[in-house]
Write the structure tokens for this entry.
Amino acid sequence: QVQLVESGGGLAQAGDSLSVTCAASGLTFSNYAAGWFRQAPGKEREFVAVLTRSGGRTDYADSVRGRFTISRDNAKSTVYLQMNSLKPEDTAVYYCATGSWAVFSRRPDYWGQGTQVTVSP
């Protein structure tokens, strides 16, 4: 059974930094691209960031590029998202996902349960 378990996040003020972590199990993590989506209240879930199986290539949503950094540790089956210069509009539930690089932003294979990030002005 595949499980993706997010941790971290929480409360922050605008300009602060936070990080979220996702630990994967039940799959060969290094065989999958991994990344993050988010869903703000009243909005659709949106792509945030992804990196390839090896971590050698990344892609970001325009709204977070230059502020967020994604990384992974295949030995620990873990993917990370470092969020800097947070803005109130970054407030959302952040979801970890794994899947194919080519279609990741449209159709990941597996999802985590989500972790809340709240940024106050």
Notes: The chain has a mean pLDDT of 97. The chain is about 0% helix and 50% strand. The radius of gyration is 13 Å.
